[in-house]
Amino acid sequence: MTAAPAYLDVSDAQGAAYFGTPDTGAVVMLNLLRFRAEADYAHAPDLAPVTPISGREAYALYMREMLPLLRKSGGDVLFTGASAGFLIGPQDESWDHVLLVRQASKASFLAFASDPEAQRITAHRTAAISDSRLLPIREE
Questions:
Q1: Does domain 25-84+95-130 have CATH number 3.40.920.10?
Q2: pLDDT tens-digit series, residues 88-137
Q3: β-strand 129-137 against 27-35: which pairing, if any?
């Protein structure tokens, strides 16, 4: 039996498919996150804290540094919370953290995500999570 794949970043194909469709206004991103027991800064040793921290703590660093950039881009956090498991869904699947982030448009989201400072800060997110899901939601 093989382990299910982890999803940490947007794939090129998924990014092209999403950003290749018309921008229809505001978008809310549903984030489901699973944290590492210990944050892994192997990809960004210059950002690693002096002593090891948990994935949850690394994600808190990410949010603290990222929130001003998110708000500057016209976005904001609508909701953040913990999850214990599904009421409807797989009983063996759980997520540590749930986040709803609103952006004014796909274009503002792309500009925000492409900002060099945001990309530097994202190394904390990469260190923090072992798996994630990101579901763009638009109002109908």
A1: no
A2: 999 888 999 999 999 999 999 989 989 999 999 999 999 999 999 999 99
A3: antiparallel
What's phi and psi for 35, nearest 5 deg? Answer: -90, 150
Short-list 107, 40, 43, 32, CA closest to 75: 107
Q: Is 110 exposed, middle or buried (0-12, 13-18, 19+ CB in 10 A)?
A: middle
Cα–Cα dist 100/33, whole Å: 11
What are the boundaries of each domain within the chain? 25-84+95-130
Please state, in angstroms and rounded to a whole number, the distance separating the CA atoms of residues 121 and 73: 15
Instruction: State pTM to two decimals.
Output: 0.89
Contact 32, 26 (CB under 8 A): no
- Give which of 31, 101, 104 is closest to 73, Cα–Cα: 104
Burial class (CB in 10 A: 0-12, 13-18, 19+), 33: buried
